[in-house]
User: Fold this.
Amino acid sequence: MVRAAVLPAVGAPLEITDIELPDPGPGQVRVRLAAAGVCHSDLSLSNGTMRVPVPAVLGHEGAGTVVAVGEGVEHLAPGDGVVLNWAPSCGACPACALGEVWLCANALNGAADVYARTADGTELHPGLNVAAFAEETVVPASCALPLPAGVPLADAALLGCAVLTGYGAIHHSARVRPGESVAVFGVGGVGLATLQSARIAGASTIVAVDVSPEKEELARAAGATDYVLASENTAREIRALTGRQGVDVAVECVGRAVSIRTAWDSTRRGGRTTVVGIGGKEEQVTFNALEIFHWGRTLSGCVYGNCDPAADLPVLAEHVRAGRLDLSALVTERIALDGIPAAFENMLAGKGGRALVVF
Assistant:
């Protein structure tokens, strides 16, 4: 038996309880978690913004040590450090055939599986495939990527979602070039990773936008050159910081209609707006036909940073080893399993960066 945070039903509070994991079957590995990040997507799953079969163990951003492998697993062995990959590509669907593995049609099929049971026999699903809000988990071997050398195991959990997403938004989706200006909306875990990635890309002006004045220090430490408190004047303030032109790139990490619209309005004519935040269906963003023509901007969605985790993890590890990427700077709170509900409340209130569950 291992301790886990179980979501019994959509909208219900998490329950910290014992669960029973099976031995890893063919093609599976069992992982003892070192740490798991508390992501806004977990909150969205718990409140029904995103759908997941329940009861479930959430948590999709994690790292740990392999303790057992099933038949046929050859690239991992007990004792290996791994980063959990919640969206493994199948390699066979149309998106994978195009090389767009972040859009794999079958990546989340495993979330419907039964992977564990509670002490009373209730069947549990693995959240977004990996069920990282637990002391241990059993996952397909494709969901466990070898830990790159030189990356601390607990901090490596952040590579599984926040850093890949923020890095990919800058390098793969928006394709920021040296000297360009960037605005990042939302200074949570993903936003902080995006700010660091903009700095790594060589952006000149990096504007951080958030509703909380308390986050300015975090944002500037991550690479922001300017800080703007979100208001109805945000776009005007950003244009004032960029010679009245607007930024070359705006990255929205909130998932709300008003911030998406403001990010668009903050982008220069011909600029790029990338939406990373996951909003609900009720968040409707409107544009008129004339402005789309006149401004010539590009608006694009961004799934998992448009990343291929297997290819991008070694690149991120090199940035960590070189001191360009500071994983610990994303973490504003280290908690136990029973601290996850409070971390959810902090996210709703717009407080802090990333909370990290440390086992």
